[in-house]
Each structure stands twice: as structure tokens, then as C-alpha cells.
């Protein structure tokens, strides 16, 4: 223990500690709190935002017929011909989601041997908020 104490005294001698303390006090004297001024109101844009730049950007759109929750062991037992019951009735409208957010509802139609969606309702802003809850 005496060797460790003498090593620490050599590294952190009284004069070294006093000098470090004086340097710290001098540095603290130069420190001042930051004062921020009031923010000025932002400049209003005189030209409308140019949404034309985004018109050709592809975004994912999904038509959701329904949802189901299943335990993993049941999912692993699925085979061709298995039926998964969904949470919607046959007469209920299906949801159109853009980037996962509900934007419209409609009904499934057949167009040239392919399924399509006939939009029957566009969801308003409040409806979109409600669908996120």
C-alpha cells in the first residue's frame, strides 16, 4: 500500500493538484451561460410547393381484404386448400392503404380476369387519424 501511495503522490503531488485547481478556476471564470434571442417569424414562401417533383415516385399501395391472427404452429400447418377466416364479413368494404395508411375503402371487382378495386369512399383526415389508433 505504501508503494501505491507514494506513486500517487508523485503523480498527483500537492503542487500539481493546486495548479490544476487554479487552471480549472480560471477556465470557469471564462464560462458564461448561453443566451438565445427570440426567433423571428419564418419567411413565407411566395411560390406554392412544387409537388410535381413527386408525381412520378412509386409508392406501395395495398388492398386489404381482411386480417387474421394465428399461432405459429397453425401457420406451419397451412397447405394448399387451407382456409384462413378473416376479420371482415363478405359484404364489408375492403381497405385501400398507401404506405400502410388507410386512404380509401371500396369493393373488389373483376376487370379482364384480374381483381381490381372500385373506390366507394375516400377517407377524410379524421378517418385516417382514427385508423392509426
Structure, described:
29% of the residues lie in helices and 22% in strands. The chain has 4 helices and 4 strands; from the N terminus they run ααβαβββα. Strands 1-2-3-4 form a 4-stranded antiparallel beta sheet. The two termini are 65 Å apart. The mean pLDDT is 80.
Topology:
Blueprint: H1 2-11, H2 14-29, E1 61-64, H3 72-76, E2 94-98, E3 101-111, E4 114-122, H4 125-132
Antiparallel strand pairs: 1-2, 2-3, 3-4
CATH hierarchy class name of the domain at 60-78 and 89-132: Mainly Beta
> Are there runs of 5+ residues with pLDDT below 50, and where?
none
* Beta-strand content: 15-25%
Distance between the termini: 65 Å
Helix and strand element order: HHEHEEEH
**Going by CATH, what is the homologous superfamily of the domain at 60-78 and 89-132?**
SpoA-like
Helix/strand/pairing class, anyone? alpha+beta
CATH architectural label of the domain at 60-78 and 89-132: Roll
Helix content: 25-40%
Structure annotation, total helices = 4
The fold-level CATH name of the domain at 60-78 and 89-132 is Surface presentation of antigens (SPOA)
Amino acid at each position: 500500500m505504501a508503494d501505491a501511495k507514494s506513486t500517487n503522490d508523485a503523480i498527483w503531488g500537492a503542487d500539481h493538484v493546486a495548479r490544476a485547481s487554479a487552471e480549472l478556476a480560471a477556465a470557469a471564470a471564462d464560462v458564461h451561460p448561453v443566451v438565445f434571442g427570440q426567433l423571428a417569424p419564418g419567411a413565407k414562401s411566395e411560390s406554392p410547393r412544387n409537388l410535381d417533383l413527386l408525381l412520378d415516385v412509386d409508392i406501395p399501395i395495398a388492398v386489404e381484404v381482411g386480417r387474421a391472427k394465428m399461432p405459429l404452429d397453425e401457420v406451419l400447418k397451412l397447405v394448399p386448400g387451407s382456409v384462413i377466416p378473416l376479420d371482415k364479413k363478405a359484404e364489408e368494404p375492403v381497405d385501400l392503404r398507401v404506405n400502410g395508411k388507410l386512404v380509401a375503402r371500396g369493393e373488389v371487382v373483376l376487370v379482364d380476369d384480374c381483381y381490381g378495386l372500385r373506390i366507394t369512399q375516400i377517407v377524410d383526415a379524421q378517418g385516417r387519424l382514427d385508423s392509426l389508433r
